[in-house]
Every structure is written in structure tokens, then in C-alpha cells.
Amino acid sequence: MFDDRSPIYRQIADKIKTDVLNGVLAGDEQVMSTNQYAAFYRINPATAAKAFQQLVDEGVLYKKRGIGMFVSPAARDLLREQRRKRFFTDVVDPMVAEAHAIGIPVTEIIERIGGHAREERA
Amino acid sequence: MSLQVEVSDLRLTYGETVALDGVGFTLTGGKIYGLLGRNGSGKTSLLSVLGAFRRPGAGSVRIGGRPVFENAAVTRQTCLIREAGEASAIGTVNDALYFAEALRSTWDAAYAERLLDAFQIPRRKNVAALSLGKRSALGVVLGLASRAPVTMFDESYLGMDAPSRYAFYEELLADFMAHPRTVIMSTHLIEEVSSLFEEILIIDRGRLVLHEQSEALRGRGVSVTGPEEEVGRFVAGLTVLGDKRLGRTRSAMVYGELGEERRGKALAAGLELGPIAIQDLFVHLTARKTPDAGPGERS
């Protein structure tokens, strides 16, 4: 779901998601604590905690009592699936709209992408 | 330990001037609170009463359930650092530390020493002879090391330069996390410090305008940008705090939560939605063009 509100906790949650997607954070790996995040970003610890809570609700992180927060083993697949679903609406559709606005025919885009596909095969 | 701060129907006047006009709120404690207001809005008056520097004109101020004025049991647990930092002609920096320690059982002398080094404050120099920057920094040191259950900074750090202020923010956060307590900071530097606050109170002309969680406040304002007619149609019936126009493009600042349905409509209509910084919200919420503004204040 596209969202334009960007409270700090959301930005932190997005950063952690990106780290999970890129494999910087692996499944079952412990993430930094709320306090470490708060100190690093110079934000109120309650704000950092809110980001973590959102990620727990979304199934990206899980909590081990008294130890800390860990990346869910399924988090990466989950996030990839979400981003895949959004890829066409968030990336392809706006690109086609832009192309239309500046007069690039869709066939030319397809041709270009075909070039990338040939490179991939080569 | 955290103490609840309860203010109800607080009034304070200086002669003819009404500084606080029926202010009321409850702080549950154990959080960092931001107190925002324009010059002369009553921030310092409010903190002076909370810190028991002034007697309430009417209404009540209770900390931990007890009235604060001339109540040593409460004032030992509160610490108010005023605007100019530590300005009293108390003697040397070492003397100021000595008195601070004598007044408070929560004082952490080792921490104070560390902070003096961090802010490079000369210990043997007279407080009155310190530069504004160092005096402000000394105020901040006294406030932090007091570890008072209710610690208040009344723009105490304004005299400090940017690197020192950032060092202060980092110290405040680190020490708050290690020793949770109630911290109230009044400020003008909203952009710079608002990320430190868990809750925000805005006062204007002696009245409380809002008291909200800062993250909720961040989601509260939305800028709606697009073709003039589309924006006009979209914001009809909503609270519009401000407007900007560039040719046929209009950007309206809407106050209040937009539901998913409305957001969808905005996007479908080709309107751009964006967040509003707390500083911008503050400027508009305290602008002098509300219908109840006095005739002399209309611009």
C-alpha cells in the first residue's frame, strides 16, 4: 500500500525492511535494540519502539522476551512478495505514464527491455 | 522513578497582563515532553510555576499528587534550568556544583564531572564571567546531573552553538534511557529537537492549544498539492490551516487525519499528498489570524 505519511517510526521500519530484503539482516538474526536505534537516529526511544512494534505486527520481526528483537525466518520472502505485488503499480505504471507524457511509445519501451532480457540471457 | 504532573485551570497574571489563562493538562511522567509556544505565549511562566519559582495565581499544580509551591518535599525532586543557563552569581563553577549536590539526593557527581569535560567548562572560573555559551552549557550540566525526577529546560541550550546543542541532545537521550524520568523542554528550535519528544504541548497566548503524541501529530497534518480547482474540491469541509499558490497550482495544509478512502480519492484526482513538519504545523496553529485574535494582533 502506497503511503505518503512519513513519521519517523515509519522511516525506520522501512530502513529495516530494506536491510532484510538486501540480506544485510538475515533470518533469526538479532536487530539492534530500541535504545541503540534511538541513540543512533537521535530520536525518542518510544518512537523507535513504535517502529519495532509495527514490524512485529507485520511479521517481519519477532520478540524474544528479555533478549531482544529478531528477524523472522520468513521475513525476506514476505517482503519480496509484498514488493513484487507493488512493482507494477509503483514502478511500471508510473514509468509508462511518464513515457506517455513525453511521447515515448510503449513499443520502444518494450524494445529497450528486450535488450536487457538479451543481456540477461547472454 | 516518574512523577505525574497535574495542572488544572492554572492562571497567572502580572499586573494587567494575563500570562496563563486557564491551562490544564496531565503528564503521566517518564517521558520527554516538548513545550512549544511563540515568544510571550506563557512557556516560561508555566515552567516557573511547575518549578515552584512562582506561586500559581489560581488553579492548581501538583507533582506526584502534591502541591509544589513552597513544598520542599516536591521541589527537591524538580529541577528547572532557566533560559540563560546557570546565571546566578553563585561563585565559581565548582561552587555551583557544590550547591547542586547539597540540594539534591539524586545528584550524580561523577556524571557532572564527565559532562563538564565534554562541554569544556572551566571549573575554577566565576559563573558570572562565563560566556553565554558556557553558561548555557553549565545549566545543561546541572540539569542533567541533577537526575531530578522532573527536570525542566526552559530553552536553556539556546546560547550553545550547534555542536554543543547536538552533544546535549545525545547526552539527554542516553541519560534518559539509562535513568528514565520526566523531562520537559521548551524550545524554539522545533525542527532540531522535535524528534526527541514523545509528547508535545503547544501553548499560545496563555492557553493550551494542543497536547498530543508527537508521532500522532506528525500524521496529523497533510499537504494537498495539485490544480487549484481539484484541491479546492478536495479540501471543502476540511480544516485548512494554510495555503500557498504558484500559478494554477495550490498547496493546502490540511489539519486532521485523512482516512484511507479520502487518500485514495486524492490520488485518483491526481493530487499529491505530503507530510507537514511539526514546525510548519506549529506556525499555522499559532498564527495570529484566528477570529478570536485581538484587534491589535490582526495583520
Automatic annotation (TrEMBL), chain A:
InterPro entries: Tscrpt_reg_HTH_GntR, WH-like_DNA-bd_sf, WH_DNA-bd_sf. Gene3D superfamilies: Winged helix-like DNA-binding domain superfamily/Winged helix DNA-binding domain. Keywords: DNA-binding, Transcription, Transcription regulation. Residues 6-74 form the HTH gntR-type domain. One of its GO terms (molecular function) is DNA-binding transcription factor activity. PROSITE patterns: HTH_GNTR. This is GntR family transcriptional regulator. It comes from Spongiactinospora gelatinilytica.
Automatic annotation (TrEMBL), chain B:
SMART domains: AAA. InterPro entries: AAA+_ATPase, ABC_transporter-like_ATP-bd, P-loop_NTPase. One of its GO terms (molecular function) is ATP binding. It holds the Pfam family ABC_tran. It comes from the Bacteria. Residues 5-230 form the ABC transporter domain. Keywords: ATP-binding, Nucleotide-binding. This is ABC transporter. It comes from Spongiactinospora gelatinilytica. The lineage of its organism: Bacteria, Bacillati, Actinomycetota, Actinomycetes, Streptosporangiales.
